[in-house]
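Lab notebook, design round three. We kept the backbone fixed and only want residue identities now. Task for the bench partner: fill in a sequence for the structure below.
Input C-alpha cells:
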C-alpha cells in the first residue's frame, strides 16, 4: 500500500505542467510577436510619411485622397509598383502636361519613393514592387527573346531600341532602363503600354524578357555600326544621304573633268 501511495501522482503535478506550458507559450510569443508588431508599425509610419509627401507634391492633380482630381487619374488600386515606376523614372511629378510623360531625373530619393508607394498601396490593393530575384536577370535568354518578339517588338523594336507610335506618342528605348522598372512597366501598363499581368506573362516570363534585354545591351555588334538597331530607317537614310550624295558628287566631278 505504501508503495502505491509513493507512486501516486502529486495533486499539484497537473498545475505545474500547465504553468510550464504557459511559460513556454508566452516565451515563444514574446520571441516572435514583437517583430510582426514592429513591421506593422514601420509600414504604418512609412505610409504616413508618404501621405505627407503626397499632399505636398501629388494631391493638386490626383486629389487629397488619391481618388483623382484636376487632370490626374485616381490612384486607388494602382499599387506600389506603379508609383515606384512613375516616380522612380522621373515621369512623376509631371513637369508639363503633354501627350506622354517622358522619363526625367527623379525628384525623390529611394526612401521617399518607397514612402509614396506605401501610401498609395494603402489606398487599395494593387501590384507590389517586384523582388530583386525577378529583376536582375538570370533567366532563359532564348525564351525571353521569343516572348519579347511576340509581345513587345512591335512597339519597342526588335532590339528594344524604341519606336514611334500614333498621335505623338512613342515607345521608349529600353537599353538604359533597369530590370525593376521594366518589370513594373509590364506589370502596370503605363500610358499606351498594355498590362502584362501574371495571367498572360508569368513572373518567370518577365524575368526571361529582362534577361534577354540585358543580353542585347551587353552583346557586341558583329556587323559593325548598328546605327542604334533601328532597322531599315537609318540604313535607308544613310544610303540616300551618303551613298547617293557621293554618286552625285562623282557625277559632277566627272562632268567638269570632261568639259
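Proposed sequence:
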Amino acid at each position: 500500500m505504501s508503495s502505491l501511495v509513493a507512486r501516486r501522482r502529486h495533486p499539484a503535478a497537473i498545475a505545474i505542467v500547465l504553468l510550464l506550458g504557459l511559460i513556454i507559450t508566452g516565451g515563444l510569443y514574446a520571441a516572435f510577436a514583437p517583430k510582426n508588431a514592429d513591421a506593422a508599425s514601420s509600414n504604418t509610419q512609412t505610409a504616413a510619411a508618404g501621405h505627407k509627401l503626397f499632399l505636398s507634391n501629388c494631391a493638386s492633380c490626383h486629389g487629397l485622397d488619391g481618388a483623382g482630381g484636376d487632370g490626374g487619374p485616381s490612384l486607388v488600386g494602382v499599387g506600389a509598383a506603379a508609383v515606384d515606376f512613375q516616380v522612380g523614372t522621373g515621369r512623376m511629378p509631371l513637369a508639363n502636361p503633354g501627350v506622354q510623360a517622358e522619363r526625367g531625373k527623379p525628384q525623390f530619393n529611394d526612401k521617399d519613393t518607397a514612402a509614396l508607394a506605401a501610401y498609395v498601396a494603402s489606398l487599395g490593393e494593387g501590384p507590389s514592387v517586384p523582388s530583386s530575384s525577378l529583376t536582375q536577370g538570370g533567366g532563359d535568354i532564348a525564351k525571353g527573346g521569343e516572348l519579347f518578339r511576340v509581345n513587345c517588338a512591335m512597339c519597342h523594336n526588335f532590339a528594344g531600341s524604341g519606336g514611334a507610335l500614333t498621335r505623338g506618342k512613342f515607345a521608349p528605348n529600353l537599353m538604359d532602363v533597369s530590370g525593376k522598372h521594366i518589370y513594373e512597366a509590364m506589370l502596370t501598363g503605363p500610358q499606351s503600354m498594355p498590362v502584362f499581368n501574371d495571367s498572360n506573362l508569368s513572373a518567370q516570363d518577365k524575368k526571361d524578357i529582362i534577361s534577354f534585354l540585358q543580353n542585347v545591351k551587353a552583346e557586341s555588334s558583329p556587323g559593325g555600326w548598328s546605327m542604334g538597331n533601328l532597322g531599315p530607317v537609318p540604313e535607308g537614310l544613310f544610303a540616300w544621304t551618303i551613298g547617293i550624295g557621293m554618286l552625285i558628287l562623282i557625277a559632277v566631278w566627272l562632268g567638269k573633268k570632261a568639259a
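Keep this in mind before ordering anything: Residues 13-57 form the longest helix (45 residues).
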